[in-house]
Design goal:
This protein is mostly beta strands. It has one domain: Sandwich (Jelly Rolls), CATH 2.60.120. Helix content is 8%, strand content 44%. The protein has a 5-stranded antiparallel sheet, with no helix packed on it. A 4-stranded mixed sheet has the order 2-9-8-11, with no helix packed on it. A 3-stranded mixed sheet has the order 1-14-5. The longest helix is centred in the first third of the chain and has 4 residues.
């Protein structure tokens, strides 16, 4: 297996647009608009929870997608984090995976079907807000091992 170093891109609303919405802080009372996540939680019971993850290597070996839901993630600790993303509407290849640094204090709403690997981070552990469906991890979890299928892993340069 080959390890390919990847430098994370800065997450901006434009750079994230093919994969989802980068939700930035805004003033209370601002009307709904393109700056907001457009959610689809209609295929089941929504689940909002805080997941605490232990540190793991900054290495993308597999990537997952959910076809029934628009998943939302944000650091509950307010710290930056990393995620690998590939478009839902294009063939999955190792070259199609882009890595992003997501700033603390923002949220990421993924388009339904967007491939994602992470969250990754440098701390010993980190907590994340997660909005998906109550059964997403059991019934809507399509994973591809890129290390097995493509013979590569992507090493995130933090």
């Amino acid at each position: 297996m080959r390890t390919i170093p990847v430098t994370p891109l800065a997450a901006t609303p434009d750079s994230i647009a093919p994969f989802g919405t980068l939700v930035l802080p805004g003033e209370d009372g601002t009307p709904f608009g393109p700056q907001d996540a457009s959610l689809d939680l209609s295929q089941g019971r929504p689940r909002f929870y805080i997941m605490r993850l232990p540190h793991r290597p900054l290495l993308i070996r597999g990537i997952t997608r959910h076809l029934r839901v628009t998943q939302c993630l944000a650091s509950a600790d307010g710290a930056d984090w990393f995620i690998g993303l590939a478009r839902a509407d294009a063939p999955l290849t190792a070259d199609a995976i882009a890595c992003f640094r997501i700033p603390g204090g923002t949220a990421l709403a993924l388009h339904r079907g967007t491939w994602h690997a992470g969250p990754f981070f440098v701390a010993d552990s980190q907590a994340f807000f997660n909005l998906e469906l109550s059964d997403t991890n059991e019934t809507d979890h399509d994973t591809v091992r890129i290390d097995a299928q493509f013979g590569v892993a992507l090493a995130i340069a933090a």
